[in-house]
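Lecture 7, part 2: worked example. A protein chain together with KG4.
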Amino acid sequence: MSTTILGIESSCDDTAAAVVRDGVLLSSVIANQDVHIQYGGVVPELASRAHQQNIVPVVDAALKKAGVQGNDIDAVAFTRGPGLLGSLLVGTSFAKGFALVRNIPLIEVHHLQAHILVHFIEQEGLSLPKPEFPFLCLLVSGGHSQIVLVRDHLEMEIIGKTIDDAAGEAFDKSAKLLGLPYPGGPFVDKLAKLGDETRFAFSKPRIPGLDYSFSGLKTSILYFLRDQQKLNPGFIEENKNDLCASIQKTIIDILMDKLIKAASDYGISRIALAGGVSANSGLRNRIESEAIKRNWDTFIPEFRFTTDNAAMIAITGYFKYGKKIFAPQNISPLARMEF
Ligand code: KG4
Ligand code: ZN
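Predicted complex, written out as structure tokens:
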């Protein structure tokens, strides 16, 4: 008998639904919310309203694309947290209703665990290598930066994390200082390709162990730009590419230093990337070059699975379904949520 899971993701500003059958992706649909661009960041109230508008058409489209009916679904997996509470409520309420009407199990999913499990999505006609356990995953998104020791699909331990900003925030806040649109990460990535990454040096944090810190970098960029603009008001425009390249290099250096330490401390050479920032071309290149130097086996997700999506929710739901880990109907979403 086959198992068909509907996954729903609504933790931030993307409304997404996906269908997975026996671990194989049948469809993945995402509605992005452009409404936030003009505000330079996600406005929580507007995000919840947009989710409310998008959720029915997005789920409909995912079912149609997968060629299944609502009644073919065996369980509904949804993002319980972490994320924006109002946004999570939309996906959670929809999932509850969908499960209740059909009398099928409800499965709660941790958004960050799901980002890591993209490495296990099967696709028709595509056979990508999957990491064997245990492996280390550098999980870098707009809200989180962590090094995770993955012992099994559902057994993970955070061994290092940011004590302030996430890597994605470091990209986005730096981009804002340079006058780039939100979210700035992809713009920095694009301009960095045209610049000299050795042109400017920014200070790196001295944090013990495997933890990260990015707030100092933002402050040092802010002061640097302020001082330079006093001397030359056109400084940013004239040096944008080199600034992007140098900022990106600093963020990648910070990420890689701790990842290399973690790999050596734990004696693990299977290294995976996940989360929105893993779309960054500089980070992807660096991890590949370190892999050659250090004999690592690396696992880098397809671009479409780096940022928020529901395929990752559905595949996590599939693993939980196998272990019969179901959620009750009175479950509530959590803005903050431990692993
Ligand atoms: O995982 P994600 O879609 O959402 C969260 O769960 O936070 O990550 C979004 C983050 C944003 O900060 C965005 O700027 C960053 O991922 N990002 C990038 C790139 N693409 C997305 N950062 C650097 N380079 C990129 N190419
Ligand atoms: Zn995410």
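The CA atoms of residues 93 and 133 lie 34 Å apart. The chain has two domains: 4-127+306-322, 135-267. Keep this in mind for problem set question 3.
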